[in-house]
Write a sequence for this structure.
């Protein structure tokens, strides 16, 4: 019997975030194995390039078998999508208040949340992406336990991601959109770009 690490049927999400594993498991509707390692992120301008780099590092650490990695970004429209994939470091350095101060200073707080998943099936790589337009909030609303969720309100919603139930967030989030594409691919359904 194959171990979960080498079993081709086992799907491994490489992340140190238990929140990401819980969300991905819920979105895919199948159990995932977590490989909890921090992947060094290359400094690159595109989310796709960063995600592919993470996948190469994850495959080296994981060995054979199916692997998923992801990366997210939050870009302000007035700044051409900046901070984009660098939002993690902005939040770590200046907090959500720093992100809000930048957005407030621009006068236009419109932003796009993006998620890029890289899936390795043992033979090749597929990328899946989700985008959610919205705005950066001036003050946080809701739980501040998952990245910048309390600081982002998706377009058409009166709630921030931090205020939403998991089911509400799953209907509109960038991550949910990308995971739905992966789920369709895993079922053999057609995946539209």
């Amino acid at each position: 019997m194959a171990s979960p690490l080498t079993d081709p049927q086992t799907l491994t999400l490489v992340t140190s975030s238990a929140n990401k594993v819980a969300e991905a498991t819920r979105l895919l509707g199948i159990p995932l194995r977590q490989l909890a390692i921090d992947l060094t992120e290359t400094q690159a301008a595109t989310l796709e390039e960063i995600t592919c780099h993470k996948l190469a590092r994850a495959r080296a650490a994981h060995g054979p078998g199916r692997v998923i990695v992801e990366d997210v970004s939050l870009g302000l429209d007035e700044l051409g999508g900046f901070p984009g994939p660098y939002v993690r470091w902005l939040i770590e350095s200046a907090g959500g208040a720093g992100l809000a101060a930048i957005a407030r200073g621009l006068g236009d707080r419109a932003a796009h949340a993006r998620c890029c998943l890289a899936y390795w099936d043992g033979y090749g790589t597929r990328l899946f992406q989700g985008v959610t337009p919205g705005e950066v909030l001036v003050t946080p609303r809701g739980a501040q336990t998952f990245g910048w969720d309390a600081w982002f309100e998706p377009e058409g919603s009166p709630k921030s991601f931090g205020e939403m139930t998991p089911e509400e967030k799953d209907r509109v989030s960038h991550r949910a959109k990308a995971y739905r594409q992966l789920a369709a691919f895993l079922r053999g359904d057609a995946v539209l770009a």
